[in-house]
Amino acid sequence: MTLHHPAYAQLRQVTPVAAVMLENNPSMYALEGTNTWILRAPGNDECIVVDPGDDDPAHLARVAGAGTVALTLISHRHHDHTGGIDKFVELTGAPVRAVREELRRGGGAGLEHDELIEAAGLTLRVLRTPGHTADSVSFVIEDEGSVLTADTILGRGTTVLDASDGNLGDYLESMRVLIGLGAGRMVLPGHGPELPDLETVARRYLAHREERLTQIRGALDALGADADVRAVVEHVYTDIDETLWPAAEQSVRVQLEYLRD
């Protein structure tokens, strides 16, 4: 499979329905940058925008110029997905829907699990997929079967669980929900390139988390039940560059909470 990232400042059509605009905000957590997804039925000028991105006026203007925005959807609260909300509303006037009330704009409602959203000639199904954050959602494009997974499943690597409100038990259940959608669904992630089969990736993520839990249990056996987060990271995460250890610390903190509950 050829990976088509990055493609900054370009509207790249990924499926007949979904196009992506990659924001130039790379970081340890955002990989190459934030994927803003622009969804529309073929031939329809109206579109749905998923995650306008950070407060980057040039990026927001490019997204707003891609068509008449009927609705903006927020996958989760992180600033690299939501920092540009107010500027984007100024540009488009479109309502913003999100799980968290403070992220909603223009009369936009919340997002309920299994709810169907109809706009821009499309039908999207909301899946609550918490774990990365408490408010994380995914969106199934019912018209073609692809799934926008935001940061619950990335285009490469694995997801960091936010130590402030992430939850490993929730995350494991979210993987099972995504696996239950079945094979053959394209992954449209919040960061990184698209992937061809959601079930395969979700099963790999689930196995990876279970493997890490086994490793952390082993670390606690070796270091003592009260070992701190950093000591566990240094013991377990010998397979990644030390520059990534701060991100690993967040996930380890969440995993320790899960094991010590």
TrEMBL record:
InterPro entries the UniProt entry points to: LACTB2_WH (IPR041516), Metallo-B-lactamas (IPR001279), RibonucZ/Hydroxyglut_hydro (IPR036866), Sec-metab_biosynth-thioest (IPR050662), WH-like_DNA-bd_sf (IPR036388)
Keyword annotations from UniProtKB, A to Z: Hydrolase
GO molecular function: hydrolase activity
Residues in Metallo-beta-lactamase domain copies: 33-191
A Pfam match: WHD_BLACT
Record's protein name: MBL fold metallo-hydrolase
Organism: Rhodococcus spongiicola
